[in-house]
């Protein structure tokens, strides 16, 4: 597959992942699927916007850049047919690194939050974090330590797990684009000369 075509495929995959990450983070503001009357009762990691910023906003821009590489005009740069395409591919590696860092941010935040568990109303009638070092992950009986909001533990665990997986996949795709972009920078895109009226691939 040509480097431009590969980038377009990666960009098309990143867009829905970014939207899912954005949505998952929004849902975390409604623990147990309910609206709470005090934002201080939300888990701290929700306010770090891992899915909104990391897997969402910071991923949309790289994805759009990747999508546009296939049709990028590769003529008229320094008098070389492939120069414009090569520069575009090099630029894509920079955006891929930005996307990788954003996804990594979301991944780390999600991992920390899963290990810490949700903030909830505990047996002593105070709001806090009743779990320690992910102990609730292997012992569902501990979930009863959270009295309110109802179903907050599975809600928290499911959504942050989704963000964890999305972040991991996005990191992998961005890493692939870094390699793909470098190959495109060094070798050009296989369609470059044909789109410019040349005789063969660069």
UniProtKB/TrEMBL annotation:
Q: Which chain regions cross the lipid bilayer?
A: 12-31, 46-67, 87-114, 153-176
User: What is the phylogenetic placement of the source species in the record?
Assistant: Eukaryota, Metazoa, Chordata, Craniata, Vertebrata
Keywords in alphabetical order: Membrane, Transmembrane, Transmembrane helix
N-terminal signal peptide? none
Q: From the Swiss-Prot or TrEMBL record, give the protein name.
A: Transmembrane 4 L six family member 4
Q: Which family does it belong to?
A: Belongs to the L6 tetraspanin family.
Which cellular compartments is it found in?
Membrane
Q: Which gene encodes it?
A: TM4SF4
The lineage's top-level taxon is Eukaryota
Main localization, broad class: membrane
Please give the organism: Felis catus
């Amino acid at each position: 597959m040509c480097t431009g075509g590969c980038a377009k495929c990666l960009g098309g995959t990143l867009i829905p992942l970014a939207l899912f990450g954005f949505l998952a983070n929004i849902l975390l503001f409604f623990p147990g699927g309910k609206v709470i009357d005090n934002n201080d009762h939300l888990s701290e990691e929700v306010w770090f916007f891992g899915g909104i910023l990391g897997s969402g906003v910071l991923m949309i821009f790289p994805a759009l850049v990747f999508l546009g590489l296939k049709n990028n005009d590769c003529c008229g740069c320094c008098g070389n047919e492939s120069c414009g395409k090569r520069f575009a591919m090099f630029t894509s590696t920079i955006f891929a690194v930005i996307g990788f860092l954003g996804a990594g941010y979301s991944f780390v935040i999600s991992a920390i939050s899963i290990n810490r568990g949700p903030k909830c109303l505990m047996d002593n009638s105070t709001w806090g974090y009743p779990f320690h070092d992910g102990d609730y992950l292997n012992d569902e009986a501990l979930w009863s330590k959270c009295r309110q909001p109802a179903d907050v533990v599975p809600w928290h665990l499911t959504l942050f797990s989704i963000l964890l997986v999305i972040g991991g996949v996005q990191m992998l795709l961005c890493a692939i684009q870094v390699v793909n972009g470098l190959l495109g920078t060094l070798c050009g895109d296989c369609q470059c000369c044909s789109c410019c009226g040349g005789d063969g691939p660069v």
